[in-house]
Amino acid sequence: MRLDKFICESTELTRSLAKRVIKSGEVTCNGDVVKDASFKVKDDTEVCIEGRQIKIVGERYIMMHKPVDTICSTIDEEYQSVLGLMDIEKVDTLHIAGRLDVDTTGLVLITSDGQWSHKITSPKKDCGKRYLIEAAASLDPALVETFAEGIKLKSEDGLTKPALLEIIDEYHARLTISEGKYHQVKRMFAAVGNRVVNLHREAVGEIELDADLEEGEWRFLTDAEIASI
Ligand code: URA
User: Fold this and answer.
1) Is residue 82's pLDDT more than 90?
2) Which of 1, 123, 199, 211 is the most exposed place for a label (fewest CB within 10 A)?
3) Based on the domain organization, do 122 and 132 belong to the same domain?
4) How far is the CA of 45 from the centre of ligand 1 (A)?
5) Percentage of the chain with pLDDT > 90?
6) Site residues for ligand 1, CB cut-off 6 Å
């Protein structure tokens, strides 16, 4: 890869700024100053700017514990974007794989890899999302079957895909759905005459929210987590 392209892919610099930095003599390859932007960087070339090594950023896969009053948008609006909570390079290359509402907490997956996030968000891929729910009214055990059969949501044709409801106690349950319709969980409970008062996403597919992450904290996914999607 050309040296100027390598610098663009490893830093925030644009191609023209990368060329300028190279011309200024601040860039070394394996210890030698290189002023030629077309210099070929190989896999084992150590590229430094002002003595600091830079590396290609590559695809990134991240989990965050989303706090309330943040939004799953790439920009801040009335509320802060979850991306704004991250001190990370090239944040503009990241997107959110499956949004949560402003008042929902829990697992949010963030990535630069569009094909990977499609596997999470496409209803055809059947990727389960598990939520912990607190309901306003007591949970009727008959709901387990109703949710498994599918629910007719207000202003939608057809039924939701089969969902797994596991009742924990009178007001708490776990619900696993494989679609991501707008406000789906809240609308499913509204459709059966109940209301969700607290919603928290615990898992997406086999990826569980890391119990060590406090609200607002994030970490890179492990190779096994990435491969599980
Ligand atoms: N369903 C909802 O209603 N809200 C969320 O944030 C996620 C799923």
Assistant:
1) yes
2) 211
3) no
4) 47
5) 90
6) 100-101, 104, 183-186, 199
Question: Residues 190, 224: contact at Cβ < 8 Å?
Answer: no
Mean pLDDT of 190-219: 98
Per-residue pLDDT at 211? 98
101 assigned to active site: yes
End-to-end Cα spacing for the chain: 30
- DSSP one-letter code for 124: G
Name every residue whose Cβ is closer than 8 Å to that of residue 154 and which is 6 or more positions away in sequence: 187, 190, 191
pLDDT value at 76 more than 80: no
How far apart are the CA of 98 and the centre of ligand 1, in A? 10
Range of the domain at 164: 128-204
Q: Which of 4, 76, 87, 101 is catalytic?
A: 101
The pLDDT tens digits for 14-54 are: 999 999 999 999 999 999 999 999 999 998 999 999 999 99
As a whole number, the mean pLDDT across the chain is: 95
Say yes or no: 115 and 226 in one domain. yes
Which of 9, 23, 112, 93 has the alpha carbon at shortest distance from 54?
Answer: 9
CB crowding 28-64: b at 16 or more within 10 Å, else e:
bbeeeebeebebebeeeeebebeeeebeeeeebbbbb
Report the CATH number that the domain containing residue 169 is assigned in CATH. 3.30.70.1560
**3-class SS of residue 21:** helix
Domain check: are 117 and 219 in the same one? Answer: yes
Question: Using 50, 70 and 90 to split pLDDT, how confident is the model at 131?
Answer: very high
> Ligand 1 centre and the CA of 92: distance in Å?
25
